[in-house]
Design goal:
- The complex is a heterodimer of chains A (256) and B (275).
- Chain A has helices at residues 2-28, 39-50, 53-86, 88-103, 110-117, 121-145, 149-157, 162-199, 205-214, 218-246, 251-255.
- By secondary structure, chain A is mainly alpha-helical.
- Chain A folds into 2 domains: 1-31; 37-255, MetI-like fold (Orthogonal Bundle).
- The longest helix of chain A is centred in the C-terminal third of the chain and has 38 residues, at 162-199.
- The N and C termini of chain A lie close together (11 Å).
- Chain B is 35% helix and 24% strand.
- Chain B has helices at 3-8, 62-69, 95-98, 116-126, 131-145, 160-172, 190-207, 218-224, 258-272, and strands at residues 20-29, 36-46, 51-55, 77-82, 85-86, 88-89, 92-93, 101-104, 178-182, 210-215, 227-232, 237-243.
- Classes of the chains: A mainly alpha (256), B alpha/beta (275).
- The interface between A and B is medium-sized, with 21 and 23 residues.
């Protein structure tokens, strides 16, 4: 309980303090609003943005790209992670390739994705999926490999088939790991969709951020960034909350 | 008492459990830098319905032997037969024979994501038994092992002793003819352990199955066994077989009788001679 109290009281206080420092800095040093607008100007810009239906359209498009990319990443990540975690020679064969792909800056592929999938939402969905797929897959592999020996012995003694062992033991064992991968993945999917919008296209919050900056409407750009942050936070907490429903038996599910 | 004399005359019993026959069982470990002989020369008949205890110091191969009987490990030499049927056909385990076995490990190995009821009924689920029937059987087993009321709990909500009771219930769910137990109470405190021994004796007498139990407690061995097989270490070998003919059901007080203590003393002397 005391931890929760800290979160409810201390966090807003820190937030207010930061905004106050921001305000003081802008006022005392009379910073140009093109460099850093005051918190008040940004607040006004957010209100203006939220009352504009076009902002909501952009938000919906970005949300769609993130969620679609993320769901694809979750499905492919679990399937590939499951296969690689179970089939040793396959993992050993593909491991160098996987590490290489993981290290490669996926953002550098955006121009290529735009050539392949066009300026529309598809290229952003692909980027969001590609960028968030890896943590989900690697965590699935890790999860399936960390099944307790004792649990394996039980299934062996029960003469369980490979599929039964996967369904009743390996998958539930791996679930806390998969959820951790998904928590990282949803953040990366958000980044992927937005960076995709920054670099090409004419819709979404990422595009809106770039176009407001190009119009020297810096406070609106900050406003867009706040909306993006709120969107990212909501998505992240939705994934975190899944833990409670999917792994009620797990210790980590209680402490969130 | 020598091994050969005991082998010629396995304990006569008439319950429903299946008999186990081990012939020339030998286990080697390791492939690189030569192999280590863990267990050798095991020839043993375990009668139907018998309670056999494998006793020995660490490194005597008693757990290895239990894993071989459980089909968790294929011995490098020799054969295992359950009720006249070989446990292994080449490198494949005999599914029919495996169905006759129930195994309890030192850790309860409850699956934390299943309720106690689902854990206990898992072997039935794997055999395609319907949900209603599984629930009914789980309730019945909870009663048998004394954890009624905990069916819907998560394993982490139970004490170690109760989890181990659940593990016994799980092993019994398919009505196996043979119950194999690898130091099942080793992780429990002394008082719980003594109580579990009494409960196990009752469960065994009610179910009539054959039990092979591994332990390093001499007292537990004498208390539970029809016969104690003492194994000597490096390499694991059969050393002594001792018949324990104290009347059943045995109570905790029987442990103070001269007969009980004589068995205990003899086994302890023999164990000490290995050091």
């Amino acid at each position: 309980m005391s931890k929760n109290n800290a979160a409810w009281f201390a966090t807003p206080l820190v937030l207010i303090a930061l905004i106050a420092i921001w305000h003081a800095y802008v006022t005392i040093f009379s910073v140009s609003p093109f460099i850093l607008p005051s918190p008040l100007a940004v607040g006004k810009a957010i209100v203006k943005l939220l009352s504009d239906p076009r902002t909501w359209q952009h938000t919906l498009i970005t949300l769609y790209e993130i969620v679609a990319g993320f769901i694809i990443a979750v499905i492919i990540g679990i399937v590939f992670g499951g296969l690689l975690g179970k089939i040793r020679w396959l993992e050993q064969t593909l491991n160098p390739l996987i590490v290489g792909l993981q290290v490669m800056p996926k953002v550098a592929l955006i121009p290529l994705f735009i050539v392949w999938f066009g300026f529309g939402v598809t290229s952003k969905i692909v980027l969001a999926a590609v960028i968030s797929f890896f943590p989900i897959m690697t965590n699935t592999i890790l999860g399936i490999k960390s099944v307790e020996t004792g649990h394996r012995d039980v299934m062996l003694a029960l003469n369980a088939s490979r599929w039964q062992t996967f369904r009743d033991v390996e998958l539930p064992s791996a679930l806390p790991f998969i959820l951790t991968g998904m928590e990282v993945g949803i953040v990366l999917a958000t980044i992927g969709a937005i960076v995709g919008e920054y670099l090409g296209g004419s819709q979404g919050l990422g595009y809106l951020a770039v176009s407001t900056l190009n119009a020297f409407d810096v406070q609106s750009m900050f406003g867009v960034i706040f909306i993006l942050t709120a969107l990212g936070l909501i998505l992240y907490f939705l994934v975190v909350m899944m833990r409670r429903y999917l792994t009620p038996w797990h210790a980590a599910a209680k402490n969130d | 008492m020598t091994v050969n004399a005991a082998l010629a005359d396995p304990a006569p019993t008439s319950a429903k459990g299946a008999g186990i026959r081990l012939s020339k069982v030998e286990q080697r470990y390791g492939v690189d830098k030569g192999t280590v002989l863990a267990l050798t020369g095991v020839n043993l008949d375990i009668a139907k319905g018998e309670f056999l205890v494998l006793l020995g110091p660490s490194g005597c191969g008693k757990t290895t032997l239990m894993r071989i009987i459980a089909g968790l490990l294929k011995s490098t030499e020799g054969t295992v037969e359950i009720d006249g049927q070989p446990l292994w056909n080449g490198n494949r385990r005999n599914d029919k024979v495996m169905q006759e076995l129930g195994v309890v490990f030192q850790d309860a190995n409850m699956f934390p994501w299943m309720t106690i009821e689902d854990n206990i009924a898992l072997p039935l689920k794997l055999r395609g038994v319907g949900k209603e029937e599984r629930r009914r059987r789980a309730a019945e087993l909870c009663e048998l092992v004394g954890i009624t009321g905990f069916e819907k709990r998560w394993p982490r909500e139970l004490s170690g002793g109760m989890r181990q009771r659940a593990a016994i219930a799980r092993a019994l769910s398919t009505r196996p003819q043979i119950l194999l137990m690898d130091e099942p109470f080793g992780a429990l405190d002394a008082m719980t352990r003594e109580q579990m021994n009494l409960e196990l004796q009752r469960i065994w007498m009610e179910s009539g199955c054959t039990v092979v139990l591994v332990t390093h407690s001499i007292r537990e061995a004498v208390f539970l066994a029809d016969r104690v097989l003492l194994l000597s270490p490096r390499p694991g070998k059969m050393d002594t077989i001792r018949d324990i003919s104290i009347a059943r059901p045995r109570s905790s007080y029987d442990q103070s009788t001269p007969e009980f203590q004589a068995h205990e003393l003899e086994l302890r002397k023999r164990l000490d001679s290995f050091a």
